[in-house]
Each structure stands twice: as structure tokens, then as C-alpha cells.
UniProtKB/TrEMBL annotation:
Highest taxon of the lineage: Bacteria
Subunit composition and interactions: Monomer.
Originating gene: dinB
GO molecular function, one term: DNA-directed DNA polymerase activity
InterPro entries: DNA/RNA_pol_sf, DNA_pol_Y-fam_lit_finger_sf, DNA_pol_Y-fam_little_finger, DNA_polymerase-Y, DNApol_IV, IMS_HHH_1, Rev_trsase/Diguanyl_cyclase, UmuC
Region (Disordered): 361-385, 420-442
Major location category of this protein: cytoplasm
The keyword Mitochondrion is annotated on this UniProt entry: no
Natural source organism: Nocardioides eburneus
Name recorded for this polypeptide: DNA polymerase IV
Free-text function comment from the UniProt entry: Poorly processive, error-prone DNA polymerase involved in untargeted mutagenesis. Copies undamaged DNA at stalled replication forks, which arise in vivo from mismatched or misaligned primer ends. These misaligned primers can be extended by PolIV. Exhibits no 3'-5' exonuclease (proofreading) activity. May be involved in translesional synthesis, in conjunction with the beta clamp from PolIII.
Site (Substrate discrimination): F16
Amino acid sequence: MRSHASVMHLDLDAFFASVEQRDKPSLRGKPVVVGGVGGRGVVSTASYEARRYGVRSAMSTREARSRCPHAAFLSPRFHAYRAVSDVVMGLMRELSPLVEPLSLDEAFVDLVAADLPDLEVATVGAVAEELRSRVADATGGLTASVGVGTSKFIAKVASDLDKPDGLVIVPPGAELDLLRPMSVTIIPGVGPATAERLRRAGITTVADLEAVSLDELVRITGRAHGAGLYALARAQDDRPVVPERETKSVSVEGTYDTDLTDRPLMEQLLTRQAGEVAARLKKSGLSGRTITIKVRLHDFTTLNRSTTLPSPTDHAGTIARLARALFADLVEAGDTSGGVRLLGVGVSGLADWIQEDLFGDSLEPEDEPAPDLPDPGLTRRSREGWQPGMDVVHRELGRGWVWGAGRGVVTVRFETARTPAGPVRSYAADDPDLTPWRPDGS
């Protein structure tokens, strides 16, 4: 733990939904939900207006619609989110060269590396306020919540305390006073299962956790987890801010509208996903030793199975063969008999070399061609067509976004971040005057 509050955590508020409200004037001040729009979809981000109705991230879209049926349910526009993220990360790097992005919408900043006259609370507070103001100006009004503390853990806790658009600085020496009344779930890694184990032991707050010995915590949660909980309950966190986070895994997954029960089809889907993973590995000049499949069952139970090779690979054929073998183990154990709603393939244990580098000739089987699957309308992510929220352009009326689509009709609201709320018009889904808009102009 540092002697000064010199670690900053910045978190853009309700990021995806806020970008949508910025770019769609008619949605400002109204509930907006971004994520999968189908019955099997999951909420990625909900605006604060939607959160008042109990909508939250990771909730099923079906439940979100029942809680807030009048919300705008939109598919993600990652090109817009990445553009905003690049701007914000650039502003943070202007402040300090040590910026550690956690995702598109949050990052740590090490203020020790910033050119500041000192690291007193008043100084870092002024710097944080200036950064928040610059973020709002550069992003067209998006807000950010900022926490500053003596460690990454404290800074991240602080940034959540006054959302949205807040700033909280935890002075040195005040960490335990802040943490002790809080639920143990504030500590990273304490999910529902660990929280329940701790509750059964009479541990519900950080103060309760602080009073437990290391040996007892290890007995309750395991050695690796127990040691981490013991340290964080005492605000002990010396993790540095690391400016370049290495890619730890590459994965592809799909959620399906109808539970899958046909084994050959699922094996073909895994083969196709393996091919996509291999392509991403090759594009990044990476390979990996550990192949993992992820299978979510009809009852939301999630199963993960993995196997590790003696040497790394980027070959689609090898990844597909091992993924299918792992899946076969689940099928033969009867775990998939009730139907599958999600399939995924991933590769971890990454390296920047493959077997050919060691042996000269490839020891891998030839890559399998991606299967030419029938189109049973399995996944909304892969369907062609008009998705709610997507950017479009009309030959006469210009830029707009898809309000809704179905039965051969697409409804568009014509507006952008730089215009007032615009008119709504409907067209045939195959109207040649209406096309998707892309930032590269293609």
C-alpha cells in the first residue's frame, strides 16, 4: 500500500447506454438497454433511467423487458464504443504514461508517473476533476466516475461510491474505516458461491473478514483464495499499474435462440468456432497450449472443460479436434441431454511461437474447412438484417438508426448526435435507398 493516494481508477458511467443516448437524441433521459435483443439475450449495459426499474447488467433480456417494457432495447455498436474509448484512453495517457485499461470503459492511472508538483489529496483531486471535465468535453458530454486511493483495490472501490459523475478520494490511513462496514462482496473474487460460504461461517462484512485468521480463511475458501481475501480485508494490495495488459486468451462463443440437442450440429458449430479462434490467433501472431470449451445448458448451468498440449498451436484442425473430444465427454456423461443454449471455444496459455518454429516441419494435421452449416436461424448474432440501434443511411434523408424491424419492414429514426430528435419513417426491408452505415464509409 502506498504512502499517498496516487492510484486513479476511471469508469465511464453506463458506458454503452450513454453512447447510445448521446448519438440518439430522442433517447436522452429515457430508459435504454444495450445487449442481446432476442429472448435469449443478456443485458450488457442499462442506462440509469432503466436501472430505476431494476434492470442491470447480466440480467436476461426477457426479464429486463418484463421490468421495463417501455425501454429502448438496442444491439451493441462496438465501433462507436471503441472510438470513444480510444479518445478517453488517450486523455489518460496524456496525464501519465502508466495507464492500465481493464475494458473499453475503465482503466487505472498511476499518478506517480504524472508530472505533478506533489501527490497531496488536494493536488490529485484537482487533477481528477480536470480529467473528468476533459473527458466530458472530448466525448460529447459523457460522464466518468473517478476513485483515487493508495492501491488499485481502494481506487476501484472508491470509483463506485458516488456514481454517476462522482469523484471520491480515499486519503492514506482511511482505507480500513472505508472498508469495514462494507459487504464482503466488495472484494474482488467474492462471488455468490464464496459469499455464501463466508455467510455460513458468520462472515458478511469486511470487518468480519478482518477478524478471521488466515488459517480459518484458507479452510473456508482454499489456500490461494484465502490468502488473497486475508490481504484485501486489511487493505493490503501492492499490485502495480501495468500499462500493457497481455492477451491471456482468444475465444469465440454463440448463444442460440433454440436449445440445441443435435450432436452433429453442435460439433459442426464447435468446428466453425475453432476456425474463427485459429484465424484470430494467426492474425495476432499468437498460438496457445490450452483448448477450452464452454457449454451453457438449458437451465443456465455453465460447464467448462479444457485440455493442454505439450506445445502451442494455432491450427484450426487441432483446436477443433480437441474441442469436439471435450464435448464428446460431456455428451457421453449425459450432461447435455436437456439441451444447450451456448457453445464456445477458447485457447489460452498463449505464446508468440508455434511448433513449426521448433521442428521446421508442421506436426499438425491440416486445417479443417469451416463447415457449411444450414441456416436454422440459430443465433441472432450471425443473422443478416436490421438490428435495433444499428446505424443506417438513406439516400434522401441521410443518417439514422433502426428503431425496429420485422415482417419485411424496417423502421428508422433519422437523427444523429449533432441533430435534434428526428422523424420516424418505415421502409421495405429490401429498399435499395436504405443501407447500413459504417464508419469507414464502406
